[in-house]
Amino acid sequence: MVRTQIISRGVVDQRVIKAMNKVPRELMVSVEDRSISFQDGPLSIGCGQTISQPYIVAYMTEQLQLTGTDRVLEIGTGSGYQTAVLAEIVSEVYTVEIIDELSQRARVVLMDLGYDNIRFRTGDGSEGWPEEAPFDAIMVTASPPSIPDALRRQLVDGGRLIVPAGVTFQYLFKIIRKGDTFEEDQLIGVRFVPMTGRIQEGES
Fold first, then answer.
1. Is the CB of residue 45 less than 8 Å from the CB of residue 51?
2. Going from the N-terminus, what domains does the chain have, and what CATH number goes with each?
3. 202: left (phi over 0), alpha (psi -120 to 50) or beta
4. In the predicted model, what is the mean pLDDT of residues 16-39?
5. Is there a contact between 178 and 192 (Cβ–Cβ < 8 Å)?
6. Catalytic residues
């Protein structure tokens, strides 16, 4: 999977490649789907949510330009797969999931795998985790119709935010905070499940 889907498509960050080689993706899906867990595409994890395709996980992680001392906020715990990849690279991961069933399931899997640098929260991801802000990087794994201002504000100066956004058409955006301004780059077209919560009411 790593060789044919990730390295061959241009991912070069060795920390990302090492993490993708180590994290057992097959344990993040249902027993019935384990035989296809390494295919180049998303898979259902129940509750109307999916585990992202391996390439997108690697691509988004590389775009965050992570270091071993970073504190990272993840919006959308889901299966816990992206969470584990982040935890392999950085010092601390704070992950928020709006669906409690998924949060609890991921917590069990990740604790069984021995991760002790992850903190879990059930709540509205569009609001971030203000009590623990600011963060060096923020990863969003569900698509809001527009980028939540609350997440921008929870970045440190120089912090990076990766987020899919859009309704009919979604694109991946990389945002870097520079003081009170935010540098924004549109990257690639993507397809993620919609972000739920107050963002859908235009309140974030």
1. yes
2. 2-201 (3.40.50.150)
3. left
4. 88
5. no
6. 52
